[in-house]
Structures are given as structure tokens and as C-alpha cells.
Amino acid sequence: MTIVGKVLSGDAEYTKAADVYSFGIIAYEMITSFPPYSDIPHDSDLALKICNGLRPKIPFHTPKLITRMIMRCWDARVTHRPTSKELKNESWKYLRDYHNDKDSEIGIQIENSEKLSKNLGLINSKTSTPHNYQTHPQAIYTSRLLNFPKLPKPKNEENFKRILEELTKPTSALSILKIKKKKNINILFYLVASKLHVPDF
């Protein structure tokens, strides 16, 4: 269930905007070390909930700049999603800012993230997922045909727009949102920013 609602319903072809949605899912996996919707069945009921605005829960300790980037990828309003070029440029900017200026917005957020993660015991050098982590037997991540007819038109969750607006505010105006591991976010930035010849769509 890493694809957007219109594709789940079989009413639309897989588009570049759907690729952006899937990128948001991949980014979520990188910062959480968990696949999306791992604790529930991947069935028509989940497809319906996704169309009605359900999205994976991004941990509260994720830097708000990264949370905002991922949420924009998941926007049900296709024209509001970032393009691949925008994602690349945004990732390069965060990567440069983090390495060149620890007092930058992203630098402050990641620093506070690491502190909170350490205090909460979220950082484990040996494993990135809990020992009791289990996937629901009907949570399927292998390729298969998905065609759930009569799904509603995809829409955002009721508070989606408000949350995006809050995430735009500078760090000083909000409580810091944190991320689990610095290396994971660095990998995410690098993977996106290092892609060459990314078309602007």
C-alpha cells in the first residue's frame, strides 16, 4: 500500500505524481525503519482509509522540515505535490545547510532530534527496530495486482492543511520535531540530491 488512492481504485495510470507519493513512503521508511501500515491488513478497507486521508504516522521527533517534505509528497491534491526537481533541490539545500551551518534551521532541528532520541532511548547502535516488532500476516509488501473498485476520490485528512502551515513556522515558534538517527536523514538527503538528470515534472 505504497501507492496513491487513484491507482488503488484502478481509475488512473501510475503517474510521475504517484512516484512522488511513493518517494514520501520510502522516506518514511528510512526515518522510522518500519514499513507503512505494518500492523494492519492490506485490504480494501485500508485502501478506503487511504483515499479518505489516512497516512503513516510520522514520529513526533522527526525534524519538522522533513515531516513537511514527506507530507507534501502525500498530498491528495496532485498539483500541490513537489516535483522530483524540487525534492532534489530541497534535499541538497538541507544537506549543505546541515554540514556548513550547524545553526541553520535543519541543523538545529537535527541536533535537538538527536538529544531527544537519546533521552527517550530511541537510538540503539545494534538494531534500528524493536525486538518485538512484528508485521501483520496480511500486511503484504510484494508486488501484486491491486484493483479496488468504487473507491472515493482521494482527499486529505481534515487537519492536513493546518499541520502543513504549522510545519512552515521557524523552529523558535514551535516545539522541535525530532528524528531518530542523523545518519538516516543524511542518507535520505544524499540519495535524492545525488540523482542526475532528474526531469522536471
From TrEMBL:
Keywords: ATP-binding, Kinase, Nucleotide-binding, Serine/threonine-protein kinase, Transferase. One of its GO terms (biological process) is immune response. InterPro entries: Kinase-like_dom_sf, Prot_kinase_dom, Ser-Thr/Tyr_kinase_cat_dom. Pfam families: PK_Tyr_Ser-Thr. Gene3D superfamilies: Transferase(Phosphotransferase) domain 1. One of its GO terms (molecular function) is ATP binding. It comes from the Eukaryota. This is Protein kinase domain-containing protein.
